[in-house]
Specification:
mainly alpha
């Protein structure tokens, strides 16, 4: 208590200043003291809670924001040291206490970092980064964050370099750290180049400034890259570093070295070929002196794309793999989906894409996922005959794939083919019962619109035996719904009775029947009780909602018996398991008081 009183007394000078300069009223100052007192007591408990510290910190930050707004409103900018400075110190102290207790909470550290950045507490932030990295040295992203702050905010390349080198001691094979270190060295070189240029422009003697030509040309970044290339395997890192180098206009030699390394070490990697092909798009642009007409631009783009495709064609011969074809097709689809006003160019792109799809298929190297895109493209282009052929070929290549069969059937239904039933039979024969639900759902939905009620009902009955027990639950719900739509109440009652002993069920199956009964003009409570009792037999121990619905029904139905509610409640308490009992009791209480 004495410690808390001392802390509250320490607040008095700043609160007096707030009142004296007119930022806060006396009443507001008292409210702040009361709130601060309550928050102080919470963080002085024997068992500390992180939430209490977070609430206290958030309150102080809100107070700072309010003071900032009040200052802007009345145009008063003095006494910052007496007011804001003491609040900032208190927030830092609270963060330090919380972090001291919960060192492993990275989010708490990051909140402190964000606070320091927001209030420009550079000296404090440097300490926070130092402490955080001492404890969380196993997290590369924190090292990168600290180094970026040193480089971009503190403008200290030396400190950033020192942090990256320390990070590499802990993470000697981390691609991200090497990539960011590489970027930092290039940024440092660019910064020095700009400085030198500015001095030369101002005709200042460069004698006292030591600008090394090697650093200016990015030699340090080259050393970083070479060091990383020895430790990190994989084409992705080389491509990432190359994309960073391309952002700087003095790295042509460095880019050339990375590219040569890429081609020599990863000649068989699809990503290398993909990069080399896409490079052709950026090369050979029109001279800016020429006045480019629309026709010239289209011609130029066509030539570039043809050069890209020539590289891709060479790639699929050199590396005939699924991934290589996937890269080629992805490129073609990207170009096809780009907007253009030239119909001729769009047509060329379409023809090229369809041709590549066909070649990949003939090589038996077209991945399953890309068949769907091929079919969509064919249907969009109204090439229905080819779409039917492709769909059939897809199911031959992937005869156990439900998606392929579904795709083929959808195409046949869309084109109103005569062999849909035959294809459905073949599909359910090929695909094992597990996962066949999608096909049966599609079949019965199609049958509803094209076949007689008798045929559709026979199909529904067949689907119940053909699907596995878990999937048959969905088919039962669909069967019940269709029976009501096609044959009315009498029909659905017969179907429900026939399915009642054919487990398993879902709760929605019973709820659907209860809803159908309630929609009838002569809704009989006797029938509702039967449905509820059947549902409780299956789900009475695992669902508290059905018990509450049953009680509500007895209370609200004209022929209900409210005196039954007591026995239903007693049965629910006996049957429900675990936390469901507590949930049921609380909801039942709300129901009794009229709040549910």
């Amino acid at each position: 208590a004495e410690r808390i009183e001392q802390r509250l007394e320490d607040r008095v000078p700043e609160l007096e200043q707030l009142e004296r300069v007119g930022l806060f009223t006396r009443r507001e100052v008292r409210a702040v003291l009361r709130k601060a007192s309550a928050l102080e007591y919470k963080i002085q408990r024997r068992t500390l809670r992180k939430e209490d510290f977070i609430k206290y910190i958030q309150y102080e930050i809100n107070l700072l924001e309010l003071i900032k707004k009040r200052r802007a409103r009345i145009g008063y900018s003095f006494k910052r040291d007496e007011i804001e400075h003491s609040i900032l110190q208190r927030v830092h102290s609270l963060f330090n206490r919380a972090i001291g207790k919960w060192k492993d909470d990275v989010q708490l550290w990051l909140s402190h970092v964000a606070f320091c950045k927001q209030w420009n507490a550079k000296h404090q932030l440097s300490k926070v980064f130092s402490s955080m990295l001492a404890i969380h040295s196993n997290k590369p992203e924190l090292w990168i964050m600290a180094a970026k702050w040193e480089m971009e905010t503190q403008l200290s390349s030396e400190s950033a370099r020192h942090l990256f080198l320390r990070a590499l001691r802990f993470h000697p094979e981390c691609p991200k750290i090497y990539q960011e270190y590489f970027r930092m060295e290039l940024m440092h070189a660019e910064k020095q180049r700009k400085e030198k240029k500015a001095f030369e422009k101002a005709k200042i003697d460069l004698g006292e400034f030591n600008y090394s030509e090697e650093i200016l040309n990015g030699e340090v970044a080259r050393i970083v890259y070479r060091e990383a290339a020895q430790k990190i395997k994989g084409v992705e890192f080389h491509l990432a570093v190359l994309s960073v180098a391309k952002l700087f206009n003095f790295t042509q030699d460095l880019q050339k070295e990375i590219l040569e390394s890429l081609q020599s070490k990863f000649a068989d990697d699809p990503l290398t070929w993909d990069y080399m092909a896409r490079r052709e798009l950026e090369m050979g642009s029109l001279q800016p002196t020429e006045k480019a007409t629309k026709q010239m631009k289209v011609s130029e783009m066509t030539q570039r794309e043809e050069r890209c495709c020539a590289v891709f064609e060479e790639a699929v011969r050199a590396v005939p793999t699924e991934n290589m074809w996937k890269c080629y097709i992805t490129f073609c689809l990207e170009r096809y989906n780009r907007k253009t006003n030239s119909e001729n160019l769009k047509q060329k792109r379409l023809e090229r894409t369809l041709s590549v799809f066909n070649n990949a298929h003939e090589s038996s190297l077209l991945p399953e996922a890309l068949y769907k895109q091929w079919l969509q493209l064919l249907l969009e282009s109204s090439l229905f005959e080819k779409a039917t052929e492709v769909a059939e070929a897809a199911t031959k290549c992937f005869s156990l794939s439900v998606e392929m069969w579904q795709m083929r059937l959808q195409v046949m239904i869309q084109l109103k083919s005569d062999n849909v039933t035959q294809c459905f039979e073949e599909a359910v024969k090929q695909v094992k019962s597990k996962g066949a639900l999608t096909l049966w759902t599609l079949w019965v939905e199609w049958s509803e619109g094209t076949h007689s009620k008798e045929d559709t009902e026979a199909l529904y009955k067949r689907s119940l035996h053909a699907t596995n027990p878990a999937e048959s639950v969905t088919m039962k719900e669909k069967y019940l719904d269709w029976a009501y739509r096609s044959g009315g109440y009498k029909k659905v009652k017969r179907v429900f009775t026939s399915l009642c002993e054919n487990r398993p069920f879902s709760l929605d199956f019973f709820r659907k029947m209860i809803q159908i009964e309630k929609e009838q003009e002569s809704c009989k409570m006797l029938h509702l009780r039967e449905y509820y009792e059947r549902a409780l037999r299956e789900f009475g121990s695992t669902d508290s909602g059905i018990w509450l619905d049953y009680i509500k029904e007895e209370l609200s139905h004209p022929h209900g018996k409210p005196e039954n509610c007591g026995s239903i409640h007693w049965r629910a308490m006996k049957m429900l398991e675990g936390d469901l009992v507590e949930d049921f009791v609380s909801k039942y209480t709300l129901l009794q008081t009229g709040h549910l």
